[in-house]
């Protein structure tokens, strides 16, 4: 693939910021339409997967759902789950497959609107563009509660994005805070390694890996869940900020059952609310959190049962889940004695201070419709629930990228200006 070298004051018809799956999918769609552009990547292709995932990390969606435009998964294990290094290799191969015009090692540091389009400052050069696609993703700044500073000074603390393997942590018991996908999978990784794990739960839902003879993802895909537009829901904001269901693709895929972990010795707690006098103060909601996660999983099974019945599908009958453990009490404090390390699986916040264009709401979320902002020529791609459940995944980003590429084409036709990529502004050509 050609490596692009940015020149000071160069002008591009389209600049795509971010060389992950969303940025690459957008580049493929632009290339297919003959649109000159450049993709800026602060590190290397696949760096988010390479640098922010632990050693045993794997996808939670089957490989067949990896459907980047022009490059669907073609490996030997369509129903399996790619490991971290395989995901990186998949993205690197994708970038080579269509000679993406990529500038690696170029970090965008400022974006401003101008009378002619946009000015983009990077740590290499300042360039201008008619249109800009922001494919920087939603997981930018690791989020750790402020009261983490009040934990004992000798306690090893790291965010889930820094976790690699159990051997990385100091000897002793480990506290994992958060039960989203990362928290549950890291807790399992430590548990399987024989570490004593203390897991602080939250309200994240869970989903079964398999049900009635198929991966649940396959049922949901056939039922159209991943293609359902967000504006078909009554509670758009609530849907957009939902936490992902926890499950795993490890060892061929299985449920993550926190109750079974507890039966095997893992210590479970309710939500962490503060740190006081060296003690963790906990909300007594462990039972409620476990019950909620189970209820969501069983509700998904209900919808699958209804679909099977409505289509008269022949599928094996499966007994429903029965809880294998119940909490005997609800401790409201936790002494850190014996705990040597804390893994904060508390998510990420956005880092958009460099985008000096008024496209954010009061919460700092980009305002858009299917990735098209209110500022002409500025777009987002790769956001969770940008348009559908599949938007932030390998399975749905292709549709979003295609939609935005068409919007970019239409705007180019409306403005009537054609730029030759990489030339100074003084050498523009008008169609």
From TrEMBL:
Q: Supply the Pfam families for this chain.
A: Pyr_redox_3
- Signal peptide positions are none
Q: Keywords of this protein's UniProt record, alphabetized? A: Oxidoreductase
Answer whether the UniProt record assigns the keyword Oxidoreductase to this protein. yes
Highest taxon listed in the record's lineage: Bacteria
InterPro entries, A to Z? Auxin_biosynth/cation_transpt (IPR050982), CHP04046_FMN-dependent (IPR024000), FAD/NAD-bd_sf (IPR036188)
Q: What is this protein called?
A: MSMEG_0569 family flavin-dependent oxidoreductase
């Amino acid at each position: 693939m050609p490596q692009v070298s940015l020149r000071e004051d160069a002008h591009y018809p389209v600049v795509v910021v971010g060389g992950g799956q969303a940025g690459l999918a957008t580049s493929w769609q632009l290339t297919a339409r003959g649109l000159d552009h450049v993709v800026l990547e602060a590190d290397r292709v696949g760096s988010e997967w390479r640098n922010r995932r632990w050693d045993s990390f794997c996808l939670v969606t089957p490989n067949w759902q990896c459907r980047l435009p022009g490059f669907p998964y073609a490996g030997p294990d369509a129903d399996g789950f790619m490991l971290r290094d395989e995901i990186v290799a998949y993205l690197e191969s994708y970038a080579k497959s269509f000679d993406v015009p990529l500038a690696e090692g170029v970090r965008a540091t400022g974006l401003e609107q101008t009378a002619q389009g946009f000015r983009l400052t990077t740590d290499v050069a300042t360039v201008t563009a008619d249109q800009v696609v922001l494919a920087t993703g939603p997981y930018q700044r690791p989020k750790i509660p402020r009261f983490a500073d009040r934990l004992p000074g000798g306690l090893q603390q790291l965010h889930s994005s820094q976790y690699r393997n159990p051997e990385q942590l100091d000897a002793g018991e480990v506290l994992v805070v958060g039960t989203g996908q990362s928290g549950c999978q890291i807790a399992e990784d430590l548990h399987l390694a024989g570490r004593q794990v203390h897991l602080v739960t939250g309200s994240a839902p869970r989903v079964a890996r398999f049900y009635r003879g198929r991966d649940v993802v396959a049922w949901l895909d056939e039922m159209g869940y991943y293609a359902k537009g967000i504006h078909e829901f009554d509670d758009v904001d609530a849907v957009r900020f939902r936490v992902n269901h926890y499950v795993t693709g490890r060892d061929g895929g299985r449920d993550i059952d926190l109750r079974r972990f507890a039966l095997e010795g893992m210590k479970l707690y309710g939500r962490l609310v503060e740190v006081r006098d060296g003690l963790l103060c906990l909300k007594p909601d462990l039972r409620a959190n476990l019950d909620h996660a189970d209820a969501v999983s069983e509700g998904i099974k209900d919808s699958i049962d209804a679909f099977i019945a409505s289509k008269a599908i022949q599928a094996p009958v499966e007994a429903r889940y029965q809880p294998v453990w119940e909490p005997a009490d609800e401790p409201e404090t936790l002494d850190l004695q014996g705990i040597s390390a804390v893994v904060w699986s508390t998510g990420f916040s956005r880092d958009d201070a460099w985008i000096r264009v008024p496209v954010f709401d009061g919460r700092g979320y980009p305002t858009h419709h299917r990735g098209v902002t209110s500022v002409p020529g500025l777009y987002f791609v790769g956001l969770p629930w940008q348009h559908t459940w599949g938007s932030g995944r390998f399975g749905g980003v292709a549709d979003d990228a295609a939609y935005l590429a068409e919007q970019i084409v239409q705007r180019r036709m409306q403005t009537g200006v054609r730029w030759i990529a990489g030339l100074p502004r003084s050498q523009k050509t008008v169609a």
